[in-house]
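Minutes, project check-in
Item: structure for the 175-residue chain
Input as provided by the requester:
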Amino acid sequence: MVAAVSQNTLPKGSRRYFSLAMLILPLLEPGGYAIVELSQANDTELYGFVSAVDGIPVSDSVGTREEIREAREIFLTINSAPEHGWTCYEPPSFNGPDGRGPLPLETLTGAGKYPAEARLHPVSRGPQLIPVLLILTLLGTAWYGWQYYERLKAEKAALAEAAQKPQRNGSHHRG
């Protein structure tokens, strides 16, 4: 997933991030593409390009106007159009084939409920493993401390018993 929608863009109570491709995918049945204008970064206009064939995502990328035009042309060249033609959403400045016009980001993020498959999940399990590793370390340390204490207690008992033996032997008189 290259393009993500931030929580700041979504209404309150939403999950952290959503896949832009998975939010657009239902609009591209049975096949098509969408070009979405994303926020500007460093005075460079960025666009998201999402395409699908038979409901299966084919491409999902972010780039400049020229990069996205090239991605669209490659998609249209290598894929056969469905029986009823492509479903296309793109800004007028892209001058593509008969499109349905632009697909503003607000139309995707203004929905009250988002599909579960669009929700992004963490890939790294590192933050989730930290508490488990901490608990295992504490348990290991406690077990080692208990074993050390038991061994020390046994040694003290053995020393005390050894100290008692000479006194017992010295208390017997021969007659």
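Outcome recorded: The chain has two domains: 4-118, 127-175.
No further action items on this chain.
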